[in-house]
Automatic annotation (TrEMBL):
It catalyses: heme b + 2 H(+) = protoporphyrin IX + Fe(2+). GO terms for molecular function: ferrochelatase activity. It is an enzyme of class 4 (lyase). CDD domains: Ferrochelatase_C, Ferrochelatase_N. Keywords: Chloroplast, Heme biosynthesis, Iron, Lyase, Plastid, Porphyrin biosynthesis. Its main location: plastid. GO terms for biological process: heme biosynthetic process. Belongs to the ferrochelatase family. It holds the Pfam family Ferrochelatase. It is found in: Plastid, Chloroplast membrane. It comes from Rubroshorea leprosula. Coiled coil: none annotated. InterPro entries: Ferrochelatase, Ferrochelatase_AS, Ferrochelatase_C, Ferrochelatase_N. This is Ferrochelatase.
């Protein structure tokens, strides 16, 4: 186990008699790229588009087996000696509508940080990626072995791992080519480790000593490994922070679902309070950091005002949005709107568009697709395009290979003459500082009682327990089609399902015909008795 670097962080502890404030509820003005509310997912009502500032203490326990060879980077700035506690006053509720910009109130919160006996931890969740070409096949196996990626009928779930092995072996050669083109592996772990270290430093500078852990979904360091290190460090209050700005069932939801299964079976979490920040795309620091990067890249064009700003987000299956109420599409559109509003404040009024990339498999994904949109923009005479990877905060294969290579070549072939790309946020200081603020602002709600009324459980909770998050975002998770391959018996639009229904109907008709006529193959083979 790689030892964590421990640095001292002197913090002045001052008590505060006032309750911790909630983020203010500010409604932003209509932006240039304001999206029609009619485009919101059918499964989300207006009340569901409201975010509630609430925290939840989930008293559950978890259990798992951990590989002895795991390597977990953890970053700490030391546990202080002085005593101080959370304010015990009850917190107020705060609703802010879709389109509201969340500003930081850390200057008020940090004056009463948790110290003394409390040990604060932050768990960063991310997808993970193969670090070498030899890692590609096992990484793909872990990906496709996830029931959220390939969902089999209950009767055939014993085939999950054999099927994952078959698909991973089949896809490995092409995937290796992609990773070879970006240096032989994904830089995601290195970047996430660096983000964790910078977040630790930022928290330390804000008088909140904490340890920051990295937990990946499909590759090292796995979430299970990070949780094991958290247990060894005797963390008492944990903030779970997925590194996905917008929530989706297939990204943050999958990671939180894994955490839920871990929590349920281990005794340690009985006494460890925690909270989850499922999405943070509305935060002012994040919006301004994105606007800064876009503004900087626009200046590299000869005619910045003529550049089309092209937001490209990772796609999700359409059924997630239309059937399960996944808020991803609505949050993505709102995020783009907020960024364009910020740019308009800077007198940048470029046209913009949003499309979705990285679709896989036979099911329908969110539209418009990035490749189709690039071709269409070329036909319409767009000559300058600035690609913005809106759903990514780290460089990885989707940005370095798919956008920088495949989409760039497609754009040039389609008549677009000038191509640019905004880099992922990485360790951009304003972004990291804002993440630190989000963590600090969530600390007063670690262990707070859950709001149990129906409206709260149907809303999008920015702070809450894993169970409440899954109930709010994924109430039909057992019926969700997977994002890659569909072998469902449920009511979906996939070709496999319709073919299966047709085959079952044909079998039933043949069976009915044999029973009524007393003739056919089953009678000839002696399977059905003859009544003549």
């Amino acid at each position: 186990m790689r030892s964590a670097t421990i640095q001292s962080c002197t913090s002045s502890s001052t008590s505060s008699s006032s309750a911790f404030p909630h983020p203010p509820c500010l409604t932003s003005a209509s932006g240039r790229c304001k999206f029609n509310p009619a485009l919101l997912p059918q499964g989300i009502s207006f009340s569901q588009r409201m975010s509630r500032c609430s925290g939840v203490h989930l008293e559950s326990c978890f259990n798992y087996n951990l590989s002895k060879n795991c390597i977990i980077p953890s970053y700490s700035c030391g546990w202080p000696e002085t005593q101080s506690l959370f304010s015990k006053q009850p917190h107020k509720k705060c609703l802010f509508p879709l389109g509201a910009l969340v500003t930081s109130k850390t200057q008020d919160v940090s004056s009463a940080t948790l110290i003394g006996e409390e040990r604060i931890g932050v768990l960063l969740l991310n997808l993970g990626g193969p670090e070498t070409l030899e890692d590609v096949q096992p990484f793909l196996f872990n990906l496709f072995a996830d029931p959220d990626i390939i969902r089999l009928p209950r009767l055939f779930r014993f085939l999950q791992k054999p099927l994952a092995q078959f698909i991973s072996v089949l896809r490995t050669p092409k995937s290796k080519e992609g990773y070879a083109s970006i240096g032989g592996g994904s830089p995601l772990r290195q970047i996430t480790d660096a983000q964790a270290e910078e977040l630790r430093k930022s928290l330390c500078a804000k008088n909140v000593p904490a340890k920051v852990y990295v937990g990946m979904r499909y590759w090292h360091p796995f979430t299970e490994e990070a949780i094991e290190q958290i247990k060894r460090d005797r963390i008492t209050k944990l903030v779970v922070l997925p590194l996905y700005p917008q929530f989706s069932i297939s990204t943050s939801g999958s990671s939180l679902r894994l955490l839920e299964s871990i929590f349920r079976n281990d005794e340690y979490l009985v006494n460890m309070q925690h909270t989850v920040i499922p999405s943070w795309y509305q935060r002012e620091g994040y919006i301004k950091a994105m606007a800064n990067l876009i503004e900087k890249e626009l200046q590299k064009f000869d005619s910045p005002e003529k550049v089309m700003i092209f937001f490209s987000a990772h796609g999700v299956p359409l059924a997630y949005v239309e059937e399960a109420g996944d808020p991803y599409k609505a949050e993505m559109e709102e995020c783009v709107d907020l960024i364009m509003e910020e740019l308009e404040k800077r007198k940048i009024t470029n046209a913009c568009t949003l499309a979705y990339q990285s679709r896989v498999g036979p099911v329908e994904w969110l539209k418009p697709y990035t490749d189709d949109t690039i071709i269409e923009l070329g036909r319409k005479g767009v000559k300058s395009l600035l690609a913005v990877p809106i759903s990514f905060v780290s460089e990885h294969i989707e940005t370095l290979e798919e956008i920088d290579v495949e989409y760039k070549e497609l754009a040039l072939e389609s008549g677009i003459e000038n191509w640019g790309r905004v880099p992922a946020l990485g360790c951009e200081p304003m972004f990291i500082s804002d993440l630190a603020d989000a963590v600090i602002e969530s600390l007063p709600y670690v262990g707070a009682m859950a709001v149990s009324n129906l409206e709260a459980r149907q809303s999008l909770v920015p702070l809450g327990s894993v169970e409440e998050l899954l109930a709010a975002y994924d109430s039909q998770r057992r019926e969700l089609p997977p994002p890659v391959i569909v072998w469902e018996w449920g009511w979906t639009k996939s070709a496999e399902t319709w073919n299966g229904r047709a085959a079952m109907l044909a079998v039933l008709m043949l069976l009915l015909l044999e029973i009524t006529t007393g003739e056919g193959f089953l009678h000839q083979w002696g399977i059905l008795p003859s009544f003549r």
